[in-house]
Amino acid sequence: ARIVSLSQNMRLGLAEGRVPPRVTLGSSVEQAMAQASPSIMEDPTTSPFFGPMNRLPAGDPRRDEAARIIREQIAPAYIEFAQFLQNEYPPACRETVGISAGVDGIEAYNIALRNYTTLPLTADEVHQIGLDEVARLRAEMHTVIESTEWRSQHPKWIDPDETFRWFVEYL
Fold first, then answer.
1. What span, in angstroms and rounded, lies between the C-alpha atoms of 19 and 102?
2. pLDDT tens, residue by residue, 58-114
3. What is the distance between the alpha carbons of residues 117 and 111, in angstroms, rounded to a whole number?
4. How would you class 66 by CB atoms within 10 Å of its CB: exposed for 0-12, middle for 13-18, buried for 19 or more?
5. What is the 3-state secondary structure (H, E, C) of the chain?
6. Taking the mean position of all CA atoms in its chain, how far away is CA 157?
7. What is this structure's pTM?
8. 30, 79 in Cβ contact below 8 A?
9. What is the rounded distance in angstroms from the CA atom of residue 49 to the CA atom of residue 33?
10. What angle do the packed helices 2-16 and 75-83 form, to 10 degrees?
C-alpha cells in the first residue's frame, strides 16, 4: 500500500510540476526491480521483506502468509512502481539540478537556506558572498604569482586567468 501511495503522490507532483532533476533517478528502476526479481518471485523467502520472518520457527503459518504477500502483493507493486519510474516519471523530470529551477523558483532556495542553515540571508546574498570570496582569493593568488620569479619569465599581457592556469602548471 505504501509503494502505491508513493506512486500516487509522485503523480500529484507530476501534475503540479514538482519533480526532481532527472539525474537523481539514477538506478531507481533497478532498485525497484530488485524487489521483484525472478528469484524473489520463485522463492519469496529470499526477499528482504521476508527477513523478520526468519526469526519465526519453521512451520509457523505467518511465514507462509508473508511469502504469499510478498509474491502476490509486494513484488507486483514494485514491478508496477519500476515501470512507472521507467516510463512515466523520467520524461516529466527536469534537466536542471538547482532547487531554484523547480516550480517555486528562488523562493524554494530561500526557504531551504532558512531551514538548513543558520544564515539569515537570501540566495542572492549567499551567492554574492561566494562571488566576493572568489574575487578576493583570485587577487591574493595573483599577488603571490607577481612576487615569484616565474612572473618575470612570462609576459605581463597574459590574461589573469591564463596566468593562473600557467602558474599552476608550472608548480
1. 7
2. 999 999 999 999 999 999 999 999 999 999 999 999 999 988 899 999 899 889 888
3. 10
4. buried
5. CHHHHHHHHHHHHHHHCCCCEHHHHCCHHHHHHHCCCHHHHHCHHHCHHHHHHHHCCCCCHHHHHHHHHHHHHHHHHHHHHHHHHHHHHHHHCECCCCHHHCCCHHHHHHHHHHHHCCCCCCHHHHHHHHHHHHHHHHHHHHHHHHCCHHHHCCCCCCCHHHHHHHHHHHC
6. 43
7. 0.66
8. no
9. 14
10. 20
Provide the grid cell at 46: 529470499
Query: What is the grid cell recorded at 121?
Result: 540571508
Cell of 32: 525497484
Residues whose CB falls within 8 Å of the CB of residue 56, separated by 6 or more in sequence, listed in order:
62, 63
Cell numbers describing residue 40: 524473489
